[in-house]
């Protein structure tokens, strides 16, 4: 089988997912082509998997002239593919437009039966398929939201199959007219072993005996980091009585100078980089928040080893690698109940509504202060981590999707 992957600018999970699929397919004897910006080849080295890489400038935002060129380029480089599998909404829409005239456009000559046959067949004479995996949802409105909606309709109406990383995405694409919507299987790679002890990492962070709460996220609007900073700001002296945590005679926390219940005010640690760094740094400094921005890190397993829990306040996520890594490390998760997160976390964490600062702070307090909670959730995290699908299962899953007529 000849498979052409199409993707746009990415520096994270989408690029790694495509590399994993390309490697698995070439190992099974399939011919694989990857089309995308030069930057993704430089970062993910698809050529090393046995795939052929072709540079196509799929931009991360609308650029009319560049987009027309990308559509024409995709039309050319995917001509002989049996399956075109695009990843991401923009890549999916451009790939769909790139197949225009070969699959779904009117054919001027011939009988109606001949036209239908020509539409259904690719250059090789075999049935062609366009598969689109949607890895993200839009969290902004305005003109961006309008353009996003147009791209969604293109994908819904022209893709043979749409794979989604969360149920809400699937429901939306079905409403928009997608004919065949399925859950995408996006595994996390095996977690690398930590190179340092938790004590060494805690000392580097200056955490002392305080609990470390780790967030791995790009410093961008989608990740809800302003909510995380609101949580870090406190007040920590208020007891979450609704969660059944013991309090003093007037409802206050018993304080030994280290914080309520002796656990100490937690240190919030954020690993990641992004456009909001300056804004976040200014607020952290102005309010003296117990938050450290570490930038991009290649020692996430070490950080997880030192963390009491992983925390995310994100507006939306599909199947985030950071949460799956936390579970594989046996760490409880405190997260917003959005996108595909509830399905991943299961009983290994505490879920709260997006943007609900009191609820998120109460969840942190519950984990840190309620006897047995952290241990119970950590044991559940170990179980969930062991249940995570691996790369072979993901490759077999897409092969099944490709082979469905």
Automatic annotation (TrEMBL):
<protein>
    <submittedName>
        <fullName>Glycosyltransferase family 4 protein</fullName>
        <ecNumber>2.4.-.-</ecNumber>
    </submittedName>
</protein>
<feature type="domain" description="Glycosyltransferase subfamily 4-like N-terminal">
    <location>
        <begin position="12"/>
        <end position="187"/>
    </location>
</feature>
<keyword id="KW-0328">Glycosyltransferase</keyword>
<dbReference type="GO" id="GO:0016757">
    <property type="term" value="F:glycosyltransferase activity"/>
</dbReference>
<dbReference type="InterPro" id="IPR028098">
    <property type="entry name" value="Glyco_trans_4-like_N"/>
</dbReference>
<keyword id="KW-0808">Transferase</keyword>
<dbReference type="Pfam" id="PF13579">
    <property type="entry name" value="Glyco_trans_4_4"/>
</dbReference>
<dbReference type="Pfam" id="PF13692">
    <property type="entry name" value="Glyco_trans_1_4"/>
</dbReference>
């Amino acid at each position: 089988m000849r498979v052409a992957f199409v993707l746009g600018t990415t520096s994270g999970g989408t690029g790694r997912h495509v590399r994993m699929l390309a490697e698995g397919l070439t190992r099974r004897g399939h011919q694989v082509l990857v089309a995308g910006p030069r930057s993704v080849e430089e970062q993910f080295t698809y050529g090393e998997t046995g795939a052929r890489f072709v540079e196509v400038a799929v931009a991360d935002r609308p650029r009319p002239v560049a987009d027309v060129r990308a559509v024409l380029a995709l039309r050319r480089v995917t001509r002989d593919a049996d399956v075109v599998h695009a990843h991401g909404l923009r890549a999916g829409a451009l790939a769909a437009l790139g197949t225009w005239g070969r699959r779904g456009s009117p054919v001027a000559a011939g009988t109606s039966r001949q036209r239908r046959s020509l539409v259904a067949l690719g250059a090789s004479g075999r049935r062609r398929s366009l598969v689109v995996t949607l890895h993200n949802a839009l969290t902004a409105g305005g003109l961006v939201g309008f353009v996003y909606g147009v791209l969604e309709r293109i994908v819904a109406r022209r893709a043979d199959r749409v794979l989604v990383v969360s149920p809400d995405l699937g429901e939306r694409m079905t409403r928009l007219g997608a004919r065949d919507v399925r859950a995408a299987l996006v595994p996390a790679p095996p977690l690398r072993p930590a190179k340092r002890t938790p004590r060494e990492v805690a000392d580097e962070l200056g955490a002392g005996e305080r609990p470390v709460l780790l967030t791995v996220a790009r410093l961008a609007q989608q990740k809800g980091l302003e909510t995380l900073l609101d949580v870090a700001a406190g007040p920590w002296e208020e007891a979450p009585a609704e969660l059944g945590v013991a309090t003093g005679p007037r409802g206050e926390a018993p304080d030994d100078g280290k914080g309520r219940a002796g656990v100490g005010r937690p240190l919030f640690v954020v690993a990641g980089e992004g456009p909001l760094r300056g804004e976040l740094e200014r607020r952290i400094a102005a309010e003296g928040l117990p938050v450290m921005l570490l930038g991009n890190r290649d020692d996430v397993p070490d950080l997880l080893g030192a963390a009491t829990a992983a925390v995310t306040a994100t507006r939306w996520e599909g199947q985030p690698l950071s949460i799956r890594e936390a579970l594989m490390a046996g760490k409880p998760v405190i997260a917003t109940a959005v996108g595909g997160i509830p399905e991943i976390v299961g009983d290994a964490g505490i879920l709260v509504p997006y943007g609900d600062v009191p609820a998120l702070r109460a969840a942190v307090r519950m984990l840190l202060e309620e006897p047995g909670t952290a241990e119970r959730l950590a044991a559940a995290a170990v179980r969930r981590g062991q249940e995570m699908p691996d790369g072979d299962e993901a490759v077999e899953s897409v092969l099944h999707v490709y082979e469905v007529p």
